[in-house]
Design a protein that fits this description.
19% strand; four-stranded mixed β-sheet; 27% helix; 1 helix; alpha+beta
Length: 73
């Protein structure tokens, strides 16, 4: 099994992010079928890795923009 290191899980879309690559869930209907087919094998590999190494999986946190201070404005 390949070592993917830290994997980010996007709960909303059930996708995994490894490095800068987003591996979509095979059932994500917002992604074209051709792309889902291309990633299906990789998704299975990353899913198996995530199941075997839950300590390496972190759920993606929503982006919260910083609020500038008065001095920064």
């Amino acid at each position: 099994m390949k070592d993917y290191g830290t994997v980010i899980y996007r709960k909303e879309t059930r996708a995994y992010v490894i490095g800068k690559l987003c591996v979509p869930h095979p059932d994500d209907n917002t992604i074209p079928v051709e792309i889902r087919r291309q990633f299906a094998g990789l998704w299975d590999e990353v899913f198996a890795y995530a199941e075997a190494h839950p300590e390496c999986v972190a759920e993606e946190q929503p982006y919260v923009p910083s609020v500038p201070t008065l001095e920064e404005v």
